[in-house]
Write a structure and sequence with these properties.
Elements: E1 2-6, E2 10-14, E3 21-27, E4 33-39, E5 52-53, E6 77-81, E7 87-91, H1 139-170
Antiparallel strand pairs: 1-2, 2-3, 3-4, 4-5, 6-7
Length: 171
């Protein structure tokens, strides 16, 4: 597609399927510009008087709904269209992150992901799991802690037994 300016108010458009089409820029009585397609004599494009390209309206202004004008992480917003057809800012809240295990840093299953202040408004069953270290450590880490504590105690007992045997052998 090639564009070629013809005069100050006329533009020639050539495409492979339509050799020459003229776009004429006119003004209405109220001085609003609009574009009219005019077919050249050797163009196969059927000309329709309804085919007039009007410039789009000016962009609708959107005003802030809060007093914070800065583009920060806590002041993110998105433009939405209301049912009445107006554009408006929608302030987006931060996404919640799930609590993590203190040992392996995996998100704790069974604990709701909420913003910190929202934990005050939910019941205890949403914040913990019914287990030792529930809501603080995941099940695998609790299992390894229990096994490690058991093995440490067993090692102490074995150490004391060996010490007692060595003492008895020395007598």
């Amino acid at each position: 597609m090639t564009f070629q300016r013809v005069g100050t108010r006329r533009l020639t458009v050539e495409t492979p399927s339509h050799p020459t089409v003229f776009l004429s820029f006119h003004t209405k009585p109220n001085n609003d510009p609009f574009v009219r397609l005019q077919q050249s004599t050797h163009s196969p494009l059927p000309f329709s008087p309804k085919l007039a390209i009007h410039p789009s309206k000016m962009a609708q202004r959107v005003t802030l709904r809060t007093r914070n004008p800065y583009n920060t992480k806590s002041n993110r917003r998105r433009v939405i269209k209301t049912p009445g057809g107006k554009l408006r800012y929608l302030h987006i809240n931060k996404l919640p992150t799930a609590p993590k295990c203190g040992d392996c840093h995996v998100a704790l299953p069974g604990v709701k992901a909420l913003r910190p202040r929202e934990y005050a408004n939910v019941s205890k069953r949403h914040k913990t799991v019914q287990r030792a270290y529930g809501g603080s450590r995941c099940a695998n880490c609790v299992r390894t802690r229990v096994i490690r504590a058991f093995l440490v105690e067993e090692a102490k007992i074995v150490k004391n037994v060996i010490k007692a045997q060595a003492k008895a052998a020395a007598k």
